[in-house]
Amino acid sequence: MCLAIPMKVESVKGDFAVVSIGKIKKNVNISLLKNVKKGEYLIVHAGFAIEKLDEKEAKKTLEFLKEII
Amino acid sequence: MKYIEEFRNPEKQRKIVELIIESAKFINFKITLMEVCGTHTITIGKYGIRKLMPKNIHLVSGPGCPVCVTPVDYIDIAIELSKRNDVIVTTFGDLMRVPGSFSTLEKEKANGGKIVVLYSPFDALNIAKKYPDKNIIFLSVGFETTTPSIAQTIKFAKRERIKNFYILVGNKLIPPILEFLLKKKEININGFICPGHVSVIIGTEAYKFIPEKYKIPCVISGFEPLDILYSIYLLLKCIIENKIVVINEYKRAVKDKGNTKAKEMIYEIFDVCDSEWRGIGIVPKSGLKLKEEFLDFDVLKKFKVEVKRKIKNNKCLCGEILKGTKLPFDCPLFGKKCTPENPVGPCMVSSEGTCSAYFKYERK
Ligand code: SF4
Question: What is the pTM of this model?
């Protein structure tokens, strides 16, 4: 039940943002986050964005992986 | 960066598996790692990760499927409520097929019960506005991942003075159940793969007590196959180097303190209380109840509901399976009397239930 999906912010309006993955678009509540901006990726669960994804950290993890394998 | 494909690269998966096999050679005893979260169980099943492990590395599933641990009484009460003419019960789809004592929400809906499946708790408020003469009840289950959204919904309902919206509280917390299992010494675990999206909310700090008090390493993991494999490798490395710590593999989403705004939201609306976990029993301080100033939203304050509990449950082993002490294969009903089409116990219901995931991906 803790499934949550990375989705890209298309537009922001008050407590809500339109987010997308592939062709799917959704209007999600962003009131659990601060300063959501267009182009950012959010983790979406049950109609709410619960966190932003950090591109730098994602790249670092992939770098670590590259180093060990 | 789309955060999905990058973490699925098959060539890299193969290479980490090799690394895991090499590392396991340094360990001359049996290692049991528990993936706490049902969503991890799915990734492990879907990518055949359990079968790729060397002989001395065992992956067992834990108590992290909220649907599986929701008590029979909870379902029975929800069913009773759905029979009232002045009520609409709203729920996440996952709960629909969970067996109560005598029935399921799905069967009741087919028989005319007023039950609506929602994607978001927030949608319940739209139903409440649309049907002002009905009482809209949301079945509030879930771990820390889900609870802030429900808390926010309640806060909004209070602000908007929506008077016909209620919840049936069944929310639970992950760290207390882990501590309960560790204290009881019922489980023999050498490392935890900690739930990524629960951790998004509670942060890495919430698991510190596990290495400190119980000397077991933890890795907070993302949900793609590379995340899980890398987390397994990190746990083996901890064990080999005797570095017993919490490691955050899912840094792109999880901070040390978690999402503080979401965490605060939970405790603005709820207080901690003891809670029953299906198949496990009452676990101290592992659940939530509405705070006094939000009790108007508690459906059990509004309606008196009595349910008779069925005395004896069949031979279902869900309780043991949720603790990682038994596997679905140990259950005589698995794949015979109990299948995803005809679930006997809750672990076969949700696609994230251990029995259901094993049925789909791991049957021998
Ligand atoms: S196979 Fe069915 S009856 Fe057996 S433990 Fe799993 S859910 Fe329970």
Answer: 0.93
